[in-house]
Amino acid sequence: MIFNQFFDPASSTFTYLISSGEGREALIIDPVIEKTQEYILYLKKLDLKLVKVIDTHIHADHISGMKELNKQTNCAKIMGEKSPSEVVSVRVKDNEKIKIESIELISMYTPGHTDCSYSFFMKDRIFTGDTLLINGTGRTDFQNGDPIDQYHSLFNRILKLPEETFVYPAHDYKGNKVSTIGDERKNNPRLKVNSPDQYAELMNNLNLDNPKMMDIAVPANIKGKIL
Ligand SMILES: [Fe+2]
């Protein structure tokens, strides 16, 4: 299997490329528009055919490369059914399979960071978007975010996975690249709460500034943008 994690330093975003092997089909999760050429060169180098692109949610801190990648490769544009995106071609429900050749991802509706946040589980790993971060969780104070929903997405869905499951988030700001469910259960300070209300109290008092790109990125990602 080919598995590559790209990083956009401007927005600290991780983008993932998955394929069963050279010359085969490929899938990309959470592409950043400015990085499109890097993805295309990587695809060409390994003779991969990009067939599917997934955004875990409408991002507020960068512009998605989904529409541009579709323009260049004609790949399918996939998001969860709750997405307000006007450009997606496939909307997945909770617990739906997304396949490329022998590789299978399963969608999990994990609202809380936004009401359109999905995670994607693949055999031994989960792509958590901004729902579960390494030693953190995605903020819940805009885009219809809700800390109580996020508590349930975390404790009743994602953290129920086996503890050796790898966690691949959409961002990291401190140089981490991957974690596991077990490590997050043990170390993540946001998960040291005893109830949904306690989690909401914590999340409602973070007092974070809005992302710099928010007013540009959210509308651009709903409409879709090309280079
Ligand atoms: Fe986000």
Q: Order of SSEs, N→C?
A: EEEHEHEEEEEEEEHEEHHH
First and last CA, distance: 30 Å
Global Rg: 16 Å
Mean pLDDT: 97
Low-pLDDT parts are: none
**Number of DSSP helical runs:** 6
**How does the major sheet shape up?**
6 strands, mixed
Bound molecules: fe (ii) ion
Query: Structural class, please?
Result: alpha/beta
Q: Describe the global form.
A: globular
Query: What percentage of amino acids are in beta strands?
Result: 25-35%
List keywords for this structure.
binds fe (ii) ion, 23% helix, 6 helices, six-stranded mixed beta sheet
Give your account of this protein's structure.
The chain has 227 residues and is α/β, with parallel strands linked by helices. The chain has six helices and 14 strands. The strands form three sheets. The protein has a six-stranded mixed sheet. Helix 3 packs across helix 5. It is globular. The mean pLDDT is 97. Fe (ii) ion (FE2) binds at residues 57, 59-60, 113, 130, 138. The site of fe (ii) ion has 6 residues, from loops.
